[in-house]
Amino acid sequence: MTKEHEFKTWLEQGGAQTEAGRNSRAYAIRTIERNLSALGMPHRDLDEAWEADRFEALRERLRKIREDARTGGQDYRILMPDSDNPHNRLSNWGSWLGQYGRFLAGDPPGAAKDADRIRQYVLEHYIEPAREEGREHVDVLVRDVNEALGLKEAWPNICQALAGRIFQDMAQLPEPERIGADQSSATVFRFKLDETVQSDGSRPFVLFDATGAPFQPVKNYNRSSGVSAFRIKPRGAGNKADEAIETEDIVDVARAMLVDGLASRVKAIAGGPVNYLTYGGDKLVRYELSPEIAQAIGVPPRGGVNGTSSADDGRATDAKIQKGFTPMNLILYGPPGTGKTFTTAAEAVRLCGEPVPADRAELMAVYQRLLADGRIEFVTFHQSMSYEEFVEGLRPDTPGVESQELDADELDAAGFRLKIEDGIFKRICERARLDPGEGSGDRRLDRTRPIFKVALGRRFQEEEQIKRALDANEIRHGWSGKIDWSDERFEDWAEIKTELERRTGKEISGHAGELVCTFSFRSDMQVGDYVVISDGRDRMRAFGTIASDYFFEADAEHHPHRRRVEWLWRDDQGTERARFYPNGFRQHTVYKLNGALVEWDGLEQVVFGVDRSIPAEGARPHVLIIDEINRANISKVFGELITLLEPDKRLRAENEIRLTLAYSKRLFGVPSNLHILGTMNTADRSIALLDTALRRRFTFREMMPDASILKDAGQKCGIDLPRLLATINERIEYLYDREHQIGHAYFTACSSQADVDEVMRHKVIPLLAEYFFEDWAKIAAVLGDLEPGEGSITGGFLKRTVLNPPPGLEDGDAVARFRWQVRSVDEGFDYSKLVGT
Which residues form the AAA+ ATPase domain (predicted)? Predict the structure, then answer.
């Protein structure tokens, strides 16, 4: 357990007042880590177990050991070989493991928060002693807690802290019974200690096999496991097999859970997909069942009950349910050089669902692959960062007239326009929202491809002509008559214009229909581009993909200019153009639509009949990394979208919100499969000064210098680098504050004293000069070179010489002045005084 000291400090800051209590927790964590292999865990240490599944498997194992101990089993001796009361001790150890997980996750200890102090005090002085004594319940009087902590009549705060789900999860307890007056000094909370509780604060569902031995539900349980019957433990029954109800059908199990509310979540396979049952207290708040079980017990396969909202449209009513995604908004903060930027790479890989390699080179290879796949984006904030750059804004654009992308009235006199351009945040949000998932088979349109509008004939008047082209899987037009444009030179717009002028004997305008349509059809259109067949100005009747280059049909009576098309959608009755494009179709036979105006979600709804405005069920997680997030004006950069970052406001979440973007005027939401990771250098700005809107919506994980990391590097260099860094940082904290310390990353690559000299000369000393505003006396104090008196100094890093006063100031009017210098390269540095050798 390499972080024992930090864990104890975290506990103390969070309200663990007694040293004995802190030592007990540390001992439990050490013991669990030492016995991971014996517990059946494949991890080398708890850090690796946390990275794998946030201790889910480990805490499940502790729960099984506890249940085994209830029935006289001996598994508990793996951890407690001499214990006479393992059951309650295991309950404490489970809650302590949860605390260690919060510590590893970077949750703030909350020393300044009364709520955290209250929870920690009650856990340490009431819950844990009562468990050790084997009591069935414990009562907590609000007045006693208030007096013990020296609070000022904080009755409502105490009641709220003890009744909330945070404390239930922390202490592994069910919801308490409230006795007496509400939110007063006389309020009593009665906590029942004889019920095992899951990590999410809910009770487990206990099943028994035909032999009477209890077992816990498992992720891949089915009848092929050899169990001939299930026995359901009714509410209030004991843990004896003869008090259970026997059944041979998993459907009965599901029905019992739905009716009695005995479980929090059970995953089982019964000839169908995985089933989810999610409870809050004793009430089922959301469920998802395989079709077989849903039909058998007579309920919809998805939905909410007991007064909660329905989910018949397939959306989860809880943001945390949607394919296991819990959007993370996390900021890593600390002094420079503590590895924040590198840590985000590992965190991003983990959040993308990929294994995190221990080797740095392998980790970066995975990171770069995800970056190339578009599942990770990286951006660095700066002082001039704006909403227009981050979300969307207007950019000047000067398209060539021959491209005909715009209506004539969209061009101003200077021949340019302001084009809406997406920023990095909008791009990755859209990429995450539209992600189909691995092997989903979902058909999608390529939103980077242009769409050409083509008219095959006049509506009603040339219906047979239109249908013949559609049936032949072709698009056709007759502009420029019998001229064959197949020659390669006609790829160029100017060549087409020249040929038309030669054939007609007159000058051709750049806006002439025969030139514009011919160029669009012959040269601008490419294989793989999309084509929409208009049906008048306001309707469309087909949509497809260009499947061939231009070809000339010399024998055709009409419309010899042709391309083959693969139709993705066709409806001779047509549909409204406005479903995907706001502007009416122009009369040009062929032209390219303005891509900025295409509503792709609406188009896919027409073509595939699928609503793409929300993420697919199997959408993979994406990560946006924002380096130096505190350097920008957050309100200016995020604008109105700051609200959408909250997990419950995401797309598919319970309180989903969509806002209209300022420039494109389109509805926009943040998908629930997008994680946001930020880094923050506290030497630039204290976390206390960060935008409050951002602080409310992000979790903050502190990353401080860790001198112990430098042990191996110090042996290579012949310098006690851990002591050197620890000494420097202790003095900086004394003279300045803890947020301006020096990070260990500055020294990790050092392999010789010359390397350390380079770091000190070009990194550390200049950084100290910046911190202390060129106050060299303080810099010398940090480096151990300051001496009393006003004489010259030759220190290990700095030299001080006395400056002579100008003539006329020798008689006592002069103030002592000094010249400070860094020792030269030839002189080198002396580390003996700084590291105490």
Answer: 326-708
Helix (H, G, I), strand (E, B) or coil at 33: helix
- Euclidean distance between the first and the last CA atom of the chain, given in angstroms as a whole number: 29
Structure tokens at 355: 């294994």
Tokens of 108: 């703030």
Closest listed residue to residue 59, CA positions, set 214, 223, 158, 196: 196
Q: How far apart are CA 800 and CA 439, in angstroms?
A: 69
Measured in residues, the chain has a length of 837
Strands 329-334, 674-681: pairing is parallel
Burial of 723 (0-12, 13-18, 19+ CB in 10 A): middle
DSSP code string of 587-633: S-SEEE--GGG--HHHHHHHHH----SS--TTPPPEEEEEETGGGS-
> For the domain 451-608, what is the CATH code?
3.10.590
Q: What is the pLDDT of residues 615-650, one digit of tens each?
A: 777 788 999 999 998 888 888 898 888 889 988 888
Closest CA relative to residue 614, chosen from 641, 646, 652, 640: 652
Q: 129-154: per-residue pLDDT in tens?
A: 887 777 778 889 888 888 888 777 77
Q: What is the largest CA-CA distance in the chain?
A: 114
Write a three-state SS string for 348-366.
HHHHCCCCCCCCHHHHHHH
Determine contact, residues 604/564, Cβ cutoff 8 Å.
no
Under 8 Å between Cβ of 334 and 743: yes
Tens of pLDDT, residue by residue over 231-244, are: 555 444 444 445 55
- The CA distance from 244 to 229, in Å, is 11
Q: Which two tokens stand for residue 515?
A: 């030139």
How big is the CA angle at 458 (ends 454 and 463), to the nearest 5 degrees? 100
Closest CA to 401 of 520, 262, 551: 520
* DSSP character at residue 84: S
Nearest to 782 by CA among 728, 707, 713, 711: 728
pLDDT in tens, 27-84: 888 888 888 888 888 888 888 888 888 888 888 888 888 777 777 778 888 888 777 6
Phi-psi region of 228 (alpha: psi -120 to 50; beta: other; left: phi over 0): alpha
At residue 228 the predicted structure's pLDDT band, cuts being 50, 70 and 90, is very low
- Residues 159 and 226: their CA atoms lie apart, in Å, by 48
What whole-number distance in Å separates Cα of residue 755 and Cα of residue 747? 8
State the architecture of 329-388+616-701 in CATH terms. Answer: 3-Layer(aba) Sandwich (3.40)
What is the C-alpha separation between 157 and 349, in angstroms, rounded?
A: 39
Residue for token pair 């559609």: 470
Residue 400 Cα distances to 396, 521, 586, 598, angstroms: 13, 17, 19, 20
Q: Say how far apart CA 45 and CA 48 lie, in whole Å.
A: 6
Buried b vs exposed e over 221-238: b needs ≥16 C-beta within 10 Å?
A: beeeeebeebbbbeeeee
Q: Which two tokens stand for residue 320?
A: 């945390």
Q: Which residue is associated with the tokens 């020798």?
A: 810
Among left, alpha and beta (phi > 0; psi -120 to 50; other), residue 514 is alpha
Taking alpha carbons only, the member of 627, 605, 540, 532 closest to residue 575 is 540
Residue holding tokens 């604060």? 201
C-beta separation of 829 from 784 below 8 A: no
Per DSSP bridges, beta strands 376-380 and 622-627 are: parallel
Helix (H) or strand (E) holding 295: helix 291-297
* Neighbouring residues of 824: CB distance < 8 A, sequence distance ≥ 6: none
The pTM (predicted TM-score) of the whole model is: 0.56
Question: Residue type for 579, please?
Answer: R
Q: Which residues contact 224 (CB under 8 A, 6 or more apart)?
A: none
Q: Of 165-169, 298-302, 528-532, 787-791, give the range with the top mean pLDDT.
A: 528-532
Question: Which residues make Cβ contacts (< 8 Å) with residue 712, sequence separation at least 6?
Answer: none
* In the chain, where the domains are located: 4-192, 207-314, 329-388+616-701, 451-608, 707-835
Question: 């030497």: which residue's tokens?
Answer: 683
Token pair for residue 767?
Answer: 């950084």
